[in-house]
Structures are given as C-alpha cells and as structure tokens.
Amino acid sequence: MPRCCLDVSLKAEGSMAGIKEMFGRKINLSVSAYDTAWVAMVPSRDTTNVPCFPECLDWIMENQHQDGSWGLLPGHPLLVKDKLSCTIACVIALRKWRVGKQSVQRGLNFIGSHGWAATDTDQLCPIGFGILFPAMIKEATELGLDVPLDPVLVDRMTVNQTSVLESFIGKEAILASVAEGVGESCFWEAVKNQKRSNGSLVNSPSTTAAALLYHHDKQSCEYLCLVLKEYSSGVPVAHPTELYARLCMVDALQRLGVQRYFRHEMESVLKDADRHWQLKSEEIFLDITCCALGFRLLRTHGYEVSSDELARLVDQHKFSEASGMQFMSLVSILELHKASCLMMHESEVALEQIHTLTTSYLTQQLSNEGILDETLSKEVEYALKNENGTLDRIQSRQSIHLYREDKFDILKTSYRYPNLYSKDLLTFSLYDFNYCQAHHKAELRQLERWYKGNRLDQLKDTRQVLHTAYFLITADVFNPELTEARAAYAENIILGTIVDDLFDNFAPREELLNIIDLVKKWDEPAAGDYYSNRVEIFYSALYKTLNEIGAKVVMQQGRCIKNHLVSTWLKMLEGMMSELDWWEDGVTPTIDEYLAAACETINARVCILPTIFLLGIKLPDDIIDGKEYSSLLQHVSIVARLLNDLQTYKKELIESKPNCIQQLLLKDNGVISEEEALTKTKEMIETSRRKLLQMVLQTKGSSIPRVCKDVFWTTSKIAHFLYSFRDEFSSPKEMINHINQVIYEPLILPQNMG
Prior knowledge:
Distance between the termini: 24 Å
Structural class: mainly alpha
Strand content: under 5%
Shape: elongated
Number of helices: 34
Largest sheet: 2 strands, antiparallel
Number of strands: 2
C-alpha cells in the first residue's frame, strides 16, 4: 500500500477494501423489463401455446411499478419515453399468454396518461424508439388491445418507421440493433448474418428473442437459457458485458485519481483485455463502445494495439452517415472521440476521420442543447475542451463532483451497473483528494518561504507566478511522495519566467550579459561582480536553488547532475540573447534557426531535467545523453513554443520580434497569408504532439522509464492548458478558480453519504 494511504481515515481504508472486492465480484447489469418482455414472448418449440421461458412472465408480474409502468428503478424524470417502451413490451408479453389481466390494464392506463412523452424531444430517447415503439403498438393492436394513444400520432410514427427501415437496406449492422421492430419482413434474413458465436444477435436478448419468434435456432435458445441462468428470472439489455464493465472500473479509477492504489487489479483487467484484443474476441471487436474504451485504455497503458479494428467496426456501423449516428448511444460517440484523440501515426487516417466526425457531432449536440443528461453534457463539454490532454487533478475533482451512485446509461432501454458505481468508490476518492490537497497546501507554504527567502518578491518588474507555477505541476503530478520533484519543477518555472521577463521587457543589455557570464563561471561571486541589485537577487536564487536540487539528486541517484542543470540553463539564456540580438540588429533568422533557439528558450527543458531525477527511481547514467531523451525534449519544446507563438504573434508582429508565424510569412515572401501561416503552425504543433505521445507510450526499444516520460507529456498538457488563456500568467478568473479548487477548497462528502 502506498505510504500516502496511511493517513487516510479508517472510513476511507474500509472503502478501499470494498473497491478491491469489486474486482473479484461478478459485475452484472440491471434487469431490463424491455428485454425480459421480449424473451417472455418466445413460445416453446414443442407447444407453441405456452412460453418457452415462463420465469420471465413471473418477473414481469412481480416487477410492475405502482403507477402501472415497467422500467428502471430508481427511475428518472427524463426516462418516461423509456418507460413507455418497457411498458408496452410487458403488456404485449402478458396479453400474448393471457395472464395478468389487471396488470395489462394498469399498463395501458400508464401509456394513455403518459403518451405525450412519445414525441417529447425533452425526454431521453432510447435507441431505435422511432422504429420499436410503433412496431409494438401494431403488435398490441393485433392482439386485440386498445392502446390509448392518438391515432394521428400513431400513423405519423408508423410512416416514419417505414421510411427509416427502407433506408436500412444494405446496413445490416444498424438494422440488427433494432431488429425486433421489423416484424416478419424480409429484413430478418439480413439480420441473421449478425449472429454471434454465442448464439445471440448482437449480444441483445431482446433481438435474439424476437428472431426466435419467427425462426427457431437451437444455439439462440441456449444463449437465452445461459443468460437466464445467470440472472435468474429476468435478462439485461446486453450480455455479455463483463469485459466492458471491468474496463469501466479501470477508467473510473483513473478519472477519480485513485489508480495508484489499485495498480495490480487494473493491470489484471488490462492484460485480460489485451488477450481479448489479440484473439480478436467478439466481446470487444463487435461492441463499438467496448472497442473504443479498450483501445484507449490499452494504448495509454503502453499496450501495442492497432486502430484498424476500431476503424473497421466504425465503417460497419456506417458511422459517417446520419443513420449511423442516430443508432449509436451518445456514450459510444463520446468514447470514440476520446479514442480518436490518441492518434499517433500518419497512417491512422480512420482515427482522424472519427475525430472530425465526433467533434462535429458532439459540438452540435452541445450547441443545440441536445444532451438532456446534465452530467453527460458536462462530460462531453470537458472532453471537447481538453482533447489534447487534461491535468489530472482538475479532471479528478470534476469526476468526483459529477459522480452518481445511481448513474444510468441508455441503449434500447435504460440500464445501470448496480455494483459498479458505489459509495465506496466515491468516499475513497473524496478522502484521498482532500488528503493530497492538505499535503499540497503544506508544500506551497514551503515554496512561499523559498520565494521570500531568496528575495524574489522584491523583483517588482517581473510577473508574480509562484502560485500558478506550483498549481501547474501539482495539478498533474500530485502523488504526495513526489514533493521534491514538484518543488524542482515549480522553482524552475518561477526562475525561468523571471529571466524571460528581463529579456522581454528590455532590461539593460549589461544586466543580461552579466547573468550569462555569472552562469558560465558558476561560482559564488563577490558583491562587486553584480551589475545591479536585480542581477544579484536573481543569480543568487538560481545559484542556491540549482545547488540544492543537485544535492537532492545526489541523495536519490547517488550521482551529481549539477553540471547538466547549469548547462541547460546556460543554453536557455544564450538562446534568449540570440533572439534579442536578432531583434536589435534587424536580422531575420531562417525558420530552422528560429526553432532551434526557440526550443531552448521556452523553459520546458530546465523544468523537466531536474524533475525526472527526483521521481524516486534510479536512472541510467547516460539517460540524458541519448537520442530518445533528446527527441522527447525536441517534441515537447516545439509544442510549448509554438503554442506560445500562436498566443503572442500579433503583439510580436507589431514589435517585429521573432515568432514562428512571422518567420513563415517572411520565408515565403508574402506568398502565404497570415491564416495559412497560422494553419501551418498548428499542423507543426499537432505533428510534434503526436510524435511525443507515440514516444511516451512506446515500450519496445525505450530506455527511459514511463514515469519519466510522463513528465514530458505533463509538460505538453501544461502548455495546452496554460496557453488556452489570453495570457499564460495573467491569472484570469478561470485560472484562479482552478488553483483554488485543486489546492485550497476541500471536497465535502454529501450528508446522506457521511
């Protein structure tokens, strides 16, 4: 158990034990009234006037709600349309076998009083409702039931159903998802091709049962018997879902920020998922949501998985067509979007297309207020805003805030995992967040003492970035055990920002040259060696800080890297001087010359170098001399520098200061427009971001530990976060809110869960 867990309350430790137990339990879905009703309709092969699965009829009789409906419990105000679908299916099943007369009437009464929901766009709509509901109305009418709905409404729904079904010719994968709505039509022959090795049609008990109404199949009967054996007298909306449920557990632990406590359990799930992937298992490759989630988790954890299978599955579902989107859940589309953000190779054209389509669709749904589930709407908004990477603590706080023990999703009907989203998980995540936060507050007080002790608060002409600097690294590298790594990163952000301001704000050239000369000599100078008080304060702080960091590295690594630290700082300072010389002399560097200097001056290198040596793991002696380290630095530096250039280019164009956009415009002598130069710069950022991601996730042939490579990726995420604001260190209201939420404001456990 990590040391940081020892101070978490006994209640949190009890919750941790409960979470570990979840990995050893079977994870079942809630029973679906809709699917159970369809299974109840299947006649016995030997005697067609009796049900094949009478236990399903018993379940229906025993689980009608007080208002006469059937559906998910506990319910939700947005699930009335779903209740209509479940209720008419149950009514048909009871009527077919001439049982439960009173239950049938109560169900019809509910439909009559809630028929308004059938066309209400403010209700969550089950997938395929427009096909399935009118088909069931027709079936109920043929059974002699008087369904109390407006005939005009029913006629309109029937016409629309016919039109949609005709458009599905040649689209078997889409049709299979709503096949119970096709009746005895010729569509069944096409749907039968979607049969899986377990005997089901698309892992759906309702679709499989509907097929058995018209075409007996021994294997399909065995599938339903197997599901009923596991669920007793009812069936879920889909089966099997065990792999998907366990992947959801892994994803939840990561989003809530407590994955470090459950590495063994998570790795076991991921190994199993990888086994399924390599075997091309139907459970993962024929379920688009499971495939997208599995791809994302496996790739981010260093498993080698190709996007080809995901692309094939998306193509099979005609995802690029409107009909394909219409018959996919929003959760599936969101998972596809998240998966598409892991593009690494130029050959992954399909992922690029998926990213474009999902971004457009989700953005449109948000702008049209088409996402009725408030929690899901916030998740979509967050995913679109942070597709280049999110700082973990910001995501964790939001995930804890949005966490619902009664969370449900919706396919052809609503469902939930009763034992997956638990009070234990919420309680433990909240206590751990607050424990880490208390630790971070104490660290920040120590950083404040370092800041004042080095008199940096006296440098009035430079930006005061102490709190922002600490927040940026802590928001992603938050493990309480990594105090020294966070301090080194934050201190170098602060010192780098100060010297950047000196160069940008035209400090006397003599001061700047004095700083460079002092760093070259790197010793403790006499008072007369300083050009100004400002130089003395800055250099003294730099000298003391790098020496202290060097001593900490010796303690952890058993060797000294102080010369590397000083050399990295010197290269940054000399790069800044080169940029200043270009500006003062009116020299226009080539784009290659500019990028070479700009990648040294962005401050990423001086932050990363000391941090990776303070992560608590021994590193090879030659780690920073190799090509891999150099390439990682190059890619992250380009990302950070060009993001900065995009933000500041208008100001720097006016001042004639070097900037990538300006260099591109000058390079082509005005042949390309400013807009084209901006597009080219964004393409350069994306190319380096993908190459960086590829190197971070790569395991084969990599000599740098993943925990170290994650610092490079953290730096990329920090850059995207930082430069999403108007001025990276101006501390707008949103930035201040993030700082308060991550460092100062504890989370409160809801009273009903205390």
